[in-house]
Amino acid sequence: MNSMLSRVRAAAEQMVTSPEPAHARTAIIDIGSNSVRLVIYDGPRRIPFILFNEKVMAGLGASLARTGAIEPEAMERGLRAIGRFAHLCRSMKVADIRCVATAAVRDATNGGDFIARAKDMGLTVELLSGGQEAIGAAMGVLSGIPGADGIVGDLGGGSLELARVRGGAVEQTISLPLGVLRLPQIRAKGPRALERCVAKMLEKAGWQPEPGLPFYMVGGSWRALARFDMQLTNFPLPVVHQYEMSATRAEQLTRIVSHVDRARLKQIPAMTGSRVPTLPDAAALLSVVVRQLKSSSLVVSAYGLREGLLYDALPSDIRAHDPLLVAAEAEGEAQARFRGHGDRIDRWIAPLFPDDDAAGRRIRRAACLLADVGWRANPDFRAERGVEIALHSNWVGIDACERAMLGQALHSHFGGGIDALPGLERIATGDRLHRAALWGLAIRLAQRLSGGVEGPLAVSRLARQDDCIDLSLRDDDADLYGEAVERRLRHLAQAMGLKYRMLDG
């Protein structure tokens, strides 16, 4: 996992960061075995933001294992949902609606009836094969975790899709009839029935395990399981994307979930009541699958099929953009007093941090792109605003440690001081948090000198000479150096254990 992240980070400096102009709104209606969901997207193509998100638990696949068909009540719920969604898309002026259906509609004897009735409502339903579903989920993981190298597992209501991802591509896929709605019937056959079933299916599909690879978890039931683990461990950052667990944790969670009262499970933040009944089966399947695949670790992906469909449709040059930096620049531009100049700030402070590795330079750059996001907040709460944006915004391509560093940098930049924030030391080392705080003080100096505009940075320069920080200004621009600038330069130098001086000429 660490080697994968290092490759991502090493490539980040060569990635384009400028967000493309917003294009026409797009929407995906995802007709799954458990739920029917509408997501409307807007903003930069590489990492669009979610404008609207709604889910209806239609349960199209609830009766498949028993009858092979979609029950009439479920069909009506599903059709009412997509009818409402189509109406909302028209009201929100969505230009492109993609309506896809997966295992329930694919496998049901009356799936064709559902598609026909949807067509009468003006919606063309694209029926995805198991292979297409697996590719879509895998592309979603690659979109949200660039450089992912391992096995993607997408657990839905009707099926489990597996995909091997490496080098930004999908190399192998299989679709297995192991959705959470089918698992109770399998597990009812005995304590080892699921293990035997999975082993047999993998063998029949010719899937050869590659020991030591991460397993990327996709799907609502597995995300819910991860949230349960976050609560059990008191994890300080409630962000499920790229949350990591050991592979052995799956078996532990299987045992724990089977003995936990459902009322407690319903109290887990972001846990929907409909997910609670599926957790024991989802945990049991995860335990079996990672044991069969000999996985090294578990990594949660909040991105799956829907995001994969968007990512797969992008030209290769847009795919190559760094999702974190694109999103940070878009957010910085939207929140800034003046047109953002985060890249200029990063270049200006970079001479003070020649020892930053590729990972550090990437997060430092993101902090610079967000340098003006707190100005609308009450001055007493700007530091807290910076932390909130860093820790809780919907970033991807960033792990928990990196979020902590980003939060510390923005906290220090907006006047929160240099001390590590309480709780962050659990997810990032003290050295990393201290380095991030120094970035923040340097950004703070840049913003004070420049007033938040680009020009003064273009006519000034920071340098580190032995044990001293030099701030250089041309004679004509020397009046930019005022008391407030001197104070922030002094604070930065003291925090770095250095002297400082202002040079002109």
What does the largest sheet look like? 6 strands, mixed
The total strand number stands at 14
3D shape: elongated
The CATH superfamily of the largest domain appears as Hypothetical protein af1432
The chain-level structural class is alpha/beta
Number of domains: 3
Q: Determine the N-to-C terminus distance.
A: 50 Å
As a percent range, the share of helical residues equals 40-55%
Note poorly predicted spans: 1-22
**Broad CATH class of the largest domain:** Mainly Alpha
CATH architecture heading of the largest domain: Orthogonal Bundle
Q: What's the number of helices?
A: 22
* Structural Rg: 25 Å
Mean pLDDT: 92
Topology-level CATH name of the largest domain = Hypothetical protein af1432
- Report the β-strand fraction as a percent range: 15-25%
Strand line-up across the major sheet: 8-7-6-9-11-10
Keywords for this entry:
alpha/beta; Nucleotidyltransferase, domain 5; 3 domains; five-stranded mixed beta sheet; 22 helices; 47% helix; disordered N terminus
Describe it for me?
The chain has 505 residues and is an alpha/beta fold. The chain folds into three domains: 26-127, Nucleotidyltransferase, domain 5 (2-Layer Sandwich); 131-305, Exopolyphosphatase. Domain 2 (Nucleotidyltransferase, domain 5); 323-504, Hypothetical protein af1432. It is built from 22 helices and 14 strands. Strands 8-7-6-9-11-10 form a six-stranded mixed sheet. A five-stranded mixed sheet has the order 3-2-1-4-5. Strand 13 (468-473), helix 22 (483-496) and strand 14 (499-504) form a beta-alpha-beta unit. Helix 9 packs across helix 12. The protein is elongated. 50% of the residues are buried. Mean pLDDT is 92; it is low at 1-22.
